[in-house]
């Protein structure tokens, strides 16, 4: 039996040179293939999702072309669909939310990263992570029963009396509308901005701070003129993440925006958003064109969040690597 | 200026306590034994509960876990242990993409794939939609934790003659199990509160849903329906449901973090 020919494959001591068959017997090759199938299915599902959105909206895309984004008639009875009010509502509510959430979130992140003692910072971060875990329908519930009455009875009349000369703050105070949706969204995205910005600020190398302080700058100057500019990219990333979340948010917005396709300069006016109209009409779409127009809106939302998330990730990774690189130097 | 940043932090964190306080106050006064044991009362009558929605949510989450966790878990093993650079990049990219997709778009996808062809809403379709959302979270964090297992452990197992698969199942995964468990729990908590995809898939139901092929009620969808309805009694029940749902999600989150903070039980030699 023992021949003089080359070694039997399975007897080879080096793992790398074992033959396919021996690895198959030990289960490695099978395991690799099975786990590969699972990993591949993730790619497959994602591709299928993009394909469904693209293929599912083909009628609407061909019929309306770019006028879909410019016209504001949404009439299922006459099969006329223009998405302007929804796009407008989505952008305005997301914009309002950022105006509120960015200063608050970044301020809080600076506090947590630069000022607070490590234990306090970690404890607060824990609560902020919990805040990020609160489901959107709960924010909607609080929006409907707390924010809307507050807006109607106090904030909107107050804004009208003080800043009423601006077109932004005119019209009747219903409570629901762009401003309310924006405020609820702001509450929802603040935890994201804080969490990511804090991480990025913490990754700024220590020497940067010490150099600024040793040149005689105050603590605030060191933070605002050295640390924050260093982390600028990552902070922008956190804002893009928040924006992507705000654009795609469905439940909380649907519950407080008023669901009325209006393009109005007034933030008090009820409006509609892309996600809200999909949530309300998809299962009740009367015609193929109606259904496909809704899917096209979904496609728009997908592309927007895809681009924003991609940008955000790039910025955050670039900033933390810059910090790590300098730290090692 | 520095104190201003403290004020910002204070405002942001106090929102959580405000939400909790308000929910406990309103939900606590409306919650009762009936809430957990009775079906919803017919429209116009007061009383009743959400027993069917609680069971429905449980069934949906079970399906989602059965669908999403294996794909995420085994996919992560492939990424961390077997894959080369390009494949890993593609899979990771797809997972990140899927993670960023708004839940309403996941809903459209599940609707066109699991509802339209069968011409009816079902628990299965809802579980599919939620499971899809669990995949990327499970995958990415499991991979991180598998990678954080010290290289020395792998080499020790290999040196003893264990095959790669044996090394993974008996050394690497056990070493990272706390992290993996945390990842799964967090993914579970995240989809437990998802509402938008359920509107198109599990739909809703005011009665018991038998089997897996019928539309079913779920807590998040019930909160939505009840909160925007014009009845005071429904509003009270929405608060109660909100309290139960948020309590569940926060407890899972806290437990997950507690498991992780005890550290990965690996001797780092």
Q: Can you walk me through this structure?
A:
The complex is a heterodimer of chains A (329) and B (269). Chain A has 329 residues and is mainly α. Chain A is built from 14 helices and 2 strands, in the order H-H-H-H-E-E-H-H-H-H-H-H-H-H-H-H. Chain A folds into 2 domains: 33 residues; 266 residues, MetI-like fold, CATH 1.10.3720.10. In chain A, strands 1-2 form a two-stranded antiparallel ribbon. In chain A, helix 3 packs across helix 14, helix 5 packs parallel to helix 8 and helix 6 packs antiparallel against helix 8. With 269 residues, chain B is mainly α. Chain B has one domain: MetI-like fold. Helix content of chain B is 75%, strand content 0%. Chain B is built from 12 helices and no strands. The C terminus of chain B is likely disordered. Classes of the chains: A mainly alpha (329), B mainly alpha (269). At the A-B interface, helix 2, helix 5, helix 6, helix 7 and helix 8 of A face helix 1, helix 3, helix 4, helix 5 and helix 6 of B.
Biggest β-sheet strands, sense, barrel of chain B: none
> What integer is the average pLDDT of chain B?
90
Which structural class should the secondary elements of chain A be placed in? mainly alpha
CATH topology of chain B: MetI-like fold
Gist of the model:
The complex is a heterodimer of chains A (329) and B (269). Chain A has helices spanning 20-25, 28-56, 58-64, 67-70, 84-115, 118-133, 136-163, 178-202, 206-214, 219-230, 232-248, 251-256, 274-281, 288-328; strands spanning 74-75, 80-81. By secondary structure, chain A is mostly helical.
Please give a handful of descriptors for the protein shown.
heterodimer; A: 329 residues; mainly alpha; MetI-like fold; 2 domains; two-stranded antiparallel ribbon; 2 strands; flat; disordered N terminus; B: 269 residues; 12 helices
List the helices and strands and how they pair.
The complex is a heterodimer of chains A (329) and B (269).
Chain A: H1 20-25, H2 28-56, H3 58-64, H4 67-70, E1 74-75, E2 80-81, H5 84-115, H6 118-133, H7 136-163, H8 178-202, H9 206-214, H10 219-230, H11 232-248, H12 251-256, H13 274-281, H14 288-328
Chain B: H1 2-30, H2 33-37, H3 51-82, H4 85-100, H5 103-115, H6 123-147, H7 151-159, H8 164-175, H9 177-192, H10 196-201, H11 219-228, H12 232-261
Helix pairs in contact in B: 1-12, 3-6, 3-9, 4-6, 5-6, 6-9, 7-8, 9-12, 11-12
């Amino acid at each position: 039996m023992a021949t003089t020919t080359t070694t039997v494959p399975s007897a080879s001591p080096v793992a790398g040179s074992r033959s396919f068959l021996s690895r198959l017997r030990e289960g490695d090759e099978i395991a690799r293939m099975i786990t590969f199938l699972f990993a591949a299915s993730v790619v497959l599902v994602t591709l299928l999702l993009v394909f469904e959105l693209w293929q599912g909206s083909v009628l609407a895309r061909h019929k309306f072309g770019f006028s879909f984004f410019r016209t504001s008639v949404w009439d299922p009875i006459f099969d006329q669909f223009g998405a302007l009010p929804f796009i407008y509502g989505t952008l305005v509510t997301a914009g309002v939310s950022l105006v509120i959430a960015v200063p608050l979130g970044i301020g809080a992140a600076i506090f947590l990263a630069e000022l607070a003692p490590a234990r306090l910072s970690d404890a607060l971060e824990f609560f902020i992570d919990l805040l990020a875990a609160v489901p959107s329908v709960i924010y909607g519930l609080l929006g409907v029963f707390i924010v809307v009455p507050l807006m109607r009875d106090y904030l909107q009349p107050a804004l009208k009396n003080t800043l009423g000369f601006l077109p932004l703050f005119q019209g009747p105070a219903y409570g629901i509308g762009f401003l309310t949706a924006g405020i609820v969204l702001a509450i929802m995205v603040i935890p994201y901005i804080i969490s990511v910005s804090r991480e990025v600020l913490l990754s700024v190398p220590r020497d940067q701070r010490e150099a600024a302080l040793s040149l005689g700058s105050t603590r605030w100057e060191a933070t605002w003129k050295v640390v924050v500019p260093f982390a600028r990219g990552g902070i922008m990333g956190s804002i893009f993440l928040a924006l992507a979340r705000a654009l795609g948010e469905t439940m909380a917005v649907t519950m407080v925006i008023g669901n009325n396709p209006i393009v109005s300069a007034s933030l008090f006016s009820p409006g509609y958003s892309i996600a809200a109209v999909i949530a309300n009409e998809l299962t009740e779409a009367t015609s193929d064109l109606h259904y496909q127009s809704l899917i096209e809106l979904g496609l728009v939302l997908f592309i927007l969040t895809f681009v924003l998330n991609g940008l955000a990730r790039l910025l955050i990774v670039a900033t933390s690597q810059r910090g790590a690189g300098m730290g090692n130097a | 200026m520095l104190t201003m940043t403290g004020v910002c932090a204070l405002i942001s964190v106090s929102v959580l306590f405000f939400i909790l306080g308000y929910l406990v106050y309103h939900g606590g006064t409306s919650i009762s034994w009936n809430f957990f044991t009775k079906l919803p009362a017919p429209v116009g009558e007061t009383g009743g509960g959400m027993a069917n929605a609680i069971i429905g949510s449980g069934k949906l989450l079970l399906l989602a876990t059965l669908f999403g966790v294996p794909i995420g878990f085994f996919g992560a093993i492939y990424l961390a242990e077997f894959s080369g650079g390009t494949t890993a990049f593609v899979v990771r990219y797809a997972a990140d993409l899927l993670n960023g997709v708004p839940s309403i778009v996941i809903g459209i996808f599940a609707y066109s794939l699991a509802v339209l062809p069968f011409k009816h809403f079902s628990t299965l379709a809802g579980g599919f939609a939620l499971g899809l959302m669990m995949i990327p979270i499970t995958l990415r964090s499991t991979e991180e934790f598998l990678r954080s297992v010290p290289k020395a452990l792998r080499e020790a197992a290999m040196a003893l003659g264990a095959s790669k698969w044996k090394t993974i199942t008996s050394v690497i995964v056990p070493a990272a199990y706390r992290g993996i468990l945390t990842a799964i729990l967090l993914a579970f908590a995240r989809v437990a509160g998802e509402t938008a995809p359920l509107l198109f898939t599990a739909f809703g139901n005011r009665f018991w849903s038998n089997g897996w092929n019928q539309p079913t009620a779920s807590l998040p969808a019930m909160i939505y329906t009840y909160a925007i309805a014009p009845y005071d009694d429904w509003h009270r029940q929405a608060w109660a449901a909100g309290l139960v749902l948020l309590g569940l999600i926060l407890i899972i989150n806290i437990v997950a973090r507690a498991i992780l903070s005890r550290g990965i039980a690996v001797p780092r030699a």
